[in-house]
Amino acid sequence: MQIPIEDFYEDVLAKTAKGLGFSASSLAERAGLDRDAVREALRGNFVEEEARKLAPVLSLDSDALVLLGQSIWRPQVVELDGLALFNSAFADMTVNAFVVWDPSTREAAIFDSGADASELITFVQNESLKVKGVWVTHTHRDHIEDIPAIVRAFDCPVYVGEKELANFGTSFPAGKQFSIGSLSIESRLTWGHARGGITYVVSGLEKPIAVVGDALFAQSMGGGMVSFKDALETSGQEIMTLPDETVICTGHGPMSSVGEEKKVNPFFAGKF
Ligand SMILES: [Fe+2]
Description:
- With 272 residues, the protein is an alpha/beta fold.
- It has two domains: 9-70, 434 Repressor (Amino-terminal Domain) (Orthogonal Bundle); 83-264, Ribonuclease Z/Hydroxyacylglutathione hydrolase-like (Metallo-beta-lactamase, Chain A, 4-Layer Sandwich), CATH 3.60.15.10.
- The protein has helices at residues 9-20, 24-31, 35-42, 48-57, 62-70, 118-126, 141-144, 147-154, 228-238, 258-264, and strands spanning 83-90, 93-101, 107-111, 130-136, 158-161, 170-172, 177-180, 183-189, 198-203, 209-213, 247-250, 256-257.
- The mean pLDDT is 97.
- The protein binds fe (ii) ion.
- Fe (ii) ion binds at residues 138, 140, 193-194, 214, 222.
Protein backbone atom coordinates (compact mmCIF):
# COMPACT_ATOMS: atom_id res chain seq x y z
CA MET A 1 0.00 0.00 0.00
CA GLN A 2 1.28 3.44 -0.90
CA ILE A 3 1.99 5.83 1.98
CA PRO A 4 -0.56 8.71 2.22
CA ILE A 5 0.39 12.18 1.02
CA GLU A 6 2.16 13.89 3.93
CA ASP A 7 0.88 17.45 3.67
CA PHE A 8 -2.63 18.76 3.17
CA TYR A 9 -3.85 22.05 1.72
CA GLU A 10 -3.72 23.70 5.14
CA ASP A 11 -0.14 22.54 5.76
CA VAL A 12 1.09 24.19 2.57
CA LEU A 13 -0.82 27.37 3.37
CA ALA A 14 0.47 27.45 6.95
CA LYS A 15 4.10 26.72 6.03
CA THR A 16 4.09 29.41 3.38
CA ALA A 17 2.26 32.03 5.44
CA LYS A 18 4.69 31.46 8.31
CA GLY A 19 7.70 31.45 5.99
CA LEU A 20 6.69 34.74 4.39
CA GLY A 21 5.65 36.33 7.69
CA PHE A 22 1.91 36.61 7.02
CA SER A 23 -0.69 36.58 9.79
CA ALA A 24 -4.22 35.44 8.96
CA SER A 25 -5.24 39.13 8.89
CA SER A 26 -2.44 40.35 6.64
CA LEU A 27 -2.96 37.39 4.32
CA ALA A 28 -6.70 38.09 4.15
CA GLU A 29 -6.06 41.72 3.35
CA ARG A 30 -3.58 40.98 0.58
CA ALA A 31 -5.80 38.28 -0.95
CA GLY A 32 -8.97 40.35 -0.70
CA LEU A 33 -10.62 37.75 1.52
CA ASP A 34 -12.46 37.78 4.80
CA ARG A 35 -10.19 37.08 7.81
CA ASP A 36 -12.47 34.29 9.02
CA ALA A 37 -12.34 32.65 5.59
CA VAL A 38 -8.53 32.63 5.78
CA ARG A 39 -8.64 31.21 9.31
CA GLU A 40 -10.93 28.45 8.06
CA ALA A 41 -8.64 27.79 5.09
CA LEU A 42 -5.73 27.43 7.52
CA ARG A 43 -7.82 24.83 9.35
CA GLY A 44 -8.27 22.86 6.12
CA ASN A 45 -11.52 24.22 4.74
CA PHE A 46 -10.78 24.18 1.01
CA VAL A 47 -12.72 26.52 -1.26
CA GLU A 48 -11.33 26.71 -4.79
CA GLU A 49 -12.11 30.38 -5.32
CA GLU A 50 -10.25 31.29 -2.11
CA ALA A 51 -7.31 29.06 -3.00
CA ARG A 52 -6.99 30.91 -6.31
CA LYS A 53 -6.83 34.24 -4.46
CA LEU A 54 -4.39 33.01 -1.80
CA ALA A 55 -1.95 31.30 -4.20
CA PRO A 56 -0.51 34.40 -5.93
CA VAL A 57 -0.08 36.24 -2.61
CA LEU A 58 1.89 33.25 -1.32
CA SER A 59 3.85 32.76 -4.59
CA LEU A 60 2.26 29.32 -4.95
CA ASP A 61 1.00 27.82 -8.20
CA SER A 62 -2.81 28.21 -8.27
CA ASP A 63 -3.64 25.04 -10.19
CA ALA A 64 -1.29 22.94 -8.06
CA LEU A 65 -2.73 24.40 -4.84
CA VAL A 66 -6.28 23.63 -6.05
CA LEU A 67 -5.25 20.08 -6.95
CA LEU A 68 -3.84 19.63 -3.43
CA GLY A 69 -7.02 21.05 -1.91
CA GLN A 70 -9.08 18.55 -3.89
CA SER A 71 -7.01 15.67 -2.41
CA ILE A 72 -7.28 13.68 -5.62
CA TRP A 73 -3.72 13.40 -6.87
CA ARG A 74 -1.35 10.49 -6.12
CA PRO A 75 2.16 10.00 -7.46
CA GLN A 76 2.86 7.00 -9.68
CA VAL A 77 3.92 3.95 -7.72
CA VAL A 78 7.70 3.58 -7.88
CA GLU A 79 9.17 0.18 -8.55
CA LEU A 80 12.88 0.20 -9.17
CA ASP A 81 15.35 -2.65 -8.93
CA GLY A 82 17.90 -1.60 -6.29
CA LEU A 83 15.62 0.67 -4.24
CA ALA A 84 13.52 -0.16 -1.17
CA LEU A 85 11.57 2.16 1.14
CA PHE A 86 10.93 1.52 4.84
CA ASN A 87 8.31 3.46 6.74
CA SER A 88 8.17 3.57 10.54
CA ALA A 89 6.00 5.38 13.07
CA PHE A 90 7.33 8.35 15.02
CA ALA A 91 4.93 10.06 17.44
CA ASP A 92 1.83 10.93 15.40
CA MET A 93 3.53 10.66 12.01
CA THR A 94 5.58 8.23 9.97
CA VAL A 95 9.05 8.64 8.53
CA ASN A 96 10.92 6.99 5.65
CA ALA A 97 14.33 5.37 5.34
CA PHE A 98 15.76 3.83 2.16
CA VAL A 99 18.11 1.11 1.04
CA VAL A 100 19.76 1.53 -2.37
CA TRP A 101 21.97 -1.18 -3.81
CA ASP A 102 23.89 -2.24 -6.86
CA PRO A 103 21.95 -5.31 -8.07
CA SER A 104 25.08 -6.92 -9.51
CA THR A 105 27.57 -6.50 -6.63
CA ARG A 106 24.88 -6.27 -3.89
CA GLU A 107 26.77 -3.43 -2.21
CA ALA A 108 24.29 -1.16 -0.46
CA ALA A 109 23.81 2.32 0.95
CA ILE A 110 21.30 3.05 3.70
CA PHE A 111 19.77 6.52 3.83
CA ASP A 112 18.54 7.54 7.29
CA SER A 113 17.22 5.04 9.82
CA GLY A 114 13.70 6.22 10.45
CA ALA A 115 12.34 5.75 13.95
CA ASP A 116 12.63 1.96 13.87
CA ALA A 117 15.05 0.25 11.49
CA SER A 118 14.19 -3.36 12.36
CA GLU A 119 12.36 -4.08 9.09
CA LEU A 120 15.12 -2.44 7.11
CA ILE A 121 17.76 -4.50 8.90
CA THR A 122 15.87 -7.76 8.30
CA PHE A 123 15.46 -6.88 4.61
CA VAL A 124 19.19 -6.22 4.20
CA GLN A 125 20.02 -9.50 5.93
CA ASN A 126 17.51 -11.52 3.89
CA GLU A 127 18.79 -10.01 0.64
CA SER A 128 22.42 -10.58 1.69
CA LEU A 129 23.31 -6.98 0.87
CA LYS A 130 26.73 -5.64 1.81
CA VAL A 131 26.15 -2.39 3.68
CA LYS A 132 28.78 0.25 3.00
CA GLY A 133 27.37 2.95 5.24
CA VAL A 134 24.46 5.04 6.44
CA TRP A 135 24.09 8.43 4.76
CA VAL A 136 22.09 10.96 6.79
CA THR A 137 19.86 13.52 5.05
CA HIS A 138 19.55 15.65 8.19
CA THR A 139 19.76 15.12 11.90
CA HIS A 140 16.16 15.65 12.96
CA ARG A 141 15.42 12.97 15.51
CA ASP A 142 12.82 11.04 13.48
CA HIS A 143 15.35 10.42 10.69
CA ILE A 144 18.27 9.22 12.82
CA GLU A 145 16.61 7.64 15.84
CA ASP A 146 17.59 4.04 15.04
CA ILE A 147 21.04 4.55 13.49
CA PRO A 148 22.68 2.80 16.48
CA ALA A 149 20.75 -0.40 15.63
CA ILE A 150 21.99 -0.27 12.01
CA VAL A 151 25.57 0.28 13.13
CA ARG A 152 25.28 -2.62 15.59
CA ALA A 153 23.90 -4.89 12.86
CA PHE A 154 26.35 -4.02 10.08
CA ASP A 155 29.31 -2.32 11.77
CA CYS A 156 29.26 0.38 9.07
CA PRO A 157 30.27 4.04 8.95
CA VAL A 158 27.74 6.90 9.24
CA TYR A 159 28.09 9.98 7.03
CA VAL A 160 26.60 13.36 7.97
CA GLY A 161 26.82 16.67 6.10
CA GLU A 162 29.23 18.93 7.99
CA LYS A 163 26.80 21.85 8.27
CA GLU A 164 24.50 19.70 10.42
CA LEU A 165 27.10 19.99 13.21
CA ALA A 166 26.33 16.46 14.39
CA ASN A 167 28.14 14.89 17.34
CA PHE A 168 28.25 11.49 15.65
CA GLY A 169 29.44 9.94 12.41
CA THR A 170 31.92 11.21 9.84
CA SER A 171 31.19 14.68 8.54
CA PHE A 172 31.71 15.65 4.90
CA PRO A 173 31.29 18.82 2.82
CA ALA A 174 28.36 19.02 0.38
CA GLY A 175 29.58 18.18 -3.11
CA LYS A 176 31.49 15.12 -1.99
CA GLN A 177 30.92 12.05 -4.17
CA PHE A 178 30.65 8.51 -2.92
CA SER A 179 30.40 5.21 -4.78
CA ILE A 180 28.69 1.94 -3.98
CA GLY A 181 29.59 -0.80 -6.46
CA SER A 182 28.81 0.73 -9.85
CA LEU A 183 26.49 3.38 -8.34
CA SER A 184 27.63 6.92 -7.72
CA ILE A 185 26.23 9.12 -4.97
CA GLU A 186 26.50 12.87 -5.31
CA SER A 187 25.77 15.05 -2.26
CA ARG A 188 24.00 18.38 -2.65
CA LEU A 189 23.28 20.98 0.04
CA THR A 190 19.51 21.48 0.36
CA TRP A 191 19.22 23.49 3.53
CA GLY A 192 16.53 25.66 5.05
CA HIS A 193 14.41 22.93 6.61
CA ALA A 194 17.55 21.82 8.46
CA ARG A 195 20.77 23.77 8.92
CA GLY A 196 22.80 21.49 6.67
CA GLY A 197 20.33 19.15 4.96
CA ILE A 198 21.78 17.00 2.18
CA THR A 199 20.12 15.56 -0.93
CA TYR A 200 21.85 12.48 -2.29
CA VAL A 201 21.58 11.95 -6.04
CA VAL A 202 22.25 8.33 -6.91
CA SER A 203 23.07 7.36 -10.50
CA GLY A 204 23.55 3.91 -11.99
CA LEU A 205 20.14 2.28 -11.54
CA GLU A 206 17.51 2.25 -14.26
CA LYS A 207 16.51 5.77 -13.20
CA PRO A 208 18.33 8.39 -11.14
CA ILE A 209 17.23 8.75 -7.52
CA ALA A 210 17.25 11.80 -5.26
CA VAL A 211 17.06 11.03 -1.54
CA VAL A 212 15.93 14.41 -0.28
CA GLY A 213 15.03 14.04 3.40
CA ASP A 214 12.53 16.79 4.17
CA ALA A 215 13.72 19.16 1.43
CA LEU A 216 10.74 18.09 -0.70
CA PHE A 217 7.55 16.08 -0.24
CA ALA A 218 5.04 14.93 -2.84
CA GLN A 219 3.00 18.14 -3.42
CA SER A 220 4.84 19.98 -0.62
CA MET A 221 8.12 20.39 1.24
CA GLY A 222 9.33 20.32 4.84
CA GLY A 223 8.81 23.52 6.80
CA GLY A 224 11.45 26.24 6.49
CA MET A 225 12.48 25.79 10.09
CA VAL A 226 15.89 27.43 9.60
CA SER A 227 15.10 29.52 6.50
CA PHE A 228 11.97 29.24 4.37
CA LYS A 229 13.57 31.29 1.61
CA ASP A 230 16.66 29.08 1.43
CA ALA A 231 14.61 25.89 1.64
CA LEU A 232 12.66 27.02 -1.42
CA GLU A 233 15.75 28.18 -3.26
CA THR A 234 17.98 25.19 -2.62
CA SER A 235 15.28 22.57 -3.21
CA GLY A 236 14.44 24.34 -6.46
CA GLN A 237 18.03 24.62 -7.64
CA GLU A 238 19.30 21.25 -6.49
CA ILE A 239 16.29 18.96 -6.94
CA MET A 240 13.80 20.41 -9.42
CA THR A 241 16.52 20.83 -12.06
CA LEU A 242 17.26 17.08 -12.12
CA PRO A 243 15.91 15.02 -15.05
CA ASP A 244 12.13 14.51 -14.98
CA GLU A 245 12.45 10.75 -14.54
CA THR A 246 14.40 11.20 -11.27
CA VAL A 247 12.69 9.34 -8.43
CA ILE A 248 12.30 11.54 -5.35
CA CYS A 249 12.73 9.58 -2.12
CA THR A 250 11.06 11.79 0.46
CA GLY A 251 11.52 11.77 4.23
CA HIS A 252 7.75 11.64 4.74
CA GLY A 253 4.90 10.53 2.51
CA PRO A 254 5.10 8.64 -0.79
CA MET A 255 7.94 8.75 -3.29
CA SER A 256 7.41 10.98 -6.33
CA SER A 257 9.40 12.18 -9.32
CA VAL A 258 10.81 15.48 -10.54
CA GLY A 259 8.53 15.42 -13.60
CA GLU A 260 5.42 14.97 -11.46
CA GLU A 261 6.41 17.59 -8.90
CA LYS A 262 7.04 20.12 -11.66
CA LYS A 263 3.33 19.85 -12.38
CA VAL A 264 1.70 19.32 -8.97
CA ASN A 265 3.89 20.87 -6.29
CA PRO A 266 2.40 24.26 -5.33
CA PHE A 267 5.86 25.57 -4.36
CA PHE A 268 7.56 24.71 -7.65
CA ALA A 269 4.97 24.17 -10.39
CA GLY A 270 5.24 26.67 -13.21
CA LYS A 271 8.75 27.67 -12.13
CA PHE A 272 10.77 24.79 -13.61
FE1 LIG B 1 13.11 17.12 9.24
